[in-house]
Amino acid sequence: MIVRRLGPADVETARDLNALYADAFEDPGTYRRDTPDDAWLARQLAKEATILLVAEIDGRIVGGLTAYELAKLEAARNEIYLYDLAVAEAHRRKGVAIALITELQHIAAETGAWAVFVQADYEDPPAIALYTKLGVREDVLHFDLPPLPRP
């Protein structure tokens, strides 16, 4: 298994990762393969603060994660938000997720991040078990606030 970080030349791989997310999360509406366009994806992949990692076996994606580096203003430090993590069903419980998270933790150390944080749904016991094994649990509430146009 090879874990690697995607860059601006990896647009098709990013699309394949979105397809994996669509399957793993049973959410094809959010993770459509045909959007966004190539130029937009390449711009996102070029940003240092956007971290896309894939785990590949024989050139095929078996897992991946999306994370974002967030600069803090209260101190000269940053933190990394692990936003999406998925492993193809046939490759679960084989160390793929841990390999991806470990690489993210290495990137966090290299960028000077003071923490990597992730959220899990109460209805996702495997994710909760994985993250509990790797870190400290905090019970918090999450709210989605809609953007509002100016009047």
Silhouette: globular
Mean pLDDT, all residues = 93
The share of residues in extended strands comes to 25-35%
* CATH class (first level) name: Alpha Beta
Strand order of the largest sheet: 1-2-3-4-5
Biggest sheet layout: 5 strands, mixed
Distance between the termini: 52 Å
Low-confidence stretches: none
| Number of H- or I-type helical stretches | 4
Structural class, judged by helices and strands?
alpha+beta
- From the 3D structure, determine the CATH topology: Aminopeptidase
What is the level-2 CATH architecture name? Answer: 3-Layer(aba) Sandwich
Secondary structure: helix percent:
25-40%
Number of distinct beta strands: 5
Task: Count structural domains.
Answer: 1
Report the C-alpha radius of gyration, rounded.
Answer: 16 Å
Write down the secondary-structure element order.
Answer: EHHEEEHEH
- The CATH superfamily is known as Gcn5-related N-acetyltransferase (GNAT)
What does this protein look like?
The chain has a five-stranded mixed beta sheet, with helices on both faces. It has a single domain (2-134), classed as Gcn5-related N-acetyltransferase (GNAT) (Aminopeptidase, 3-Layer(aba) Sandwich). By secondary structure, the chain is α+β, with helices and mostly antiparallel strands. The chain has helices at 11-24, 38-46, 96-111, 125-134; strands at 2-5, 50-57, 60-71, 78-87, 113-118. The chain starts with a strand and ends in a 17-residue tail after the last helix. Helix 3 links the parallel strand 4 and strand 5 (113-118). The protein is globular. The relative contact order is 0.14.
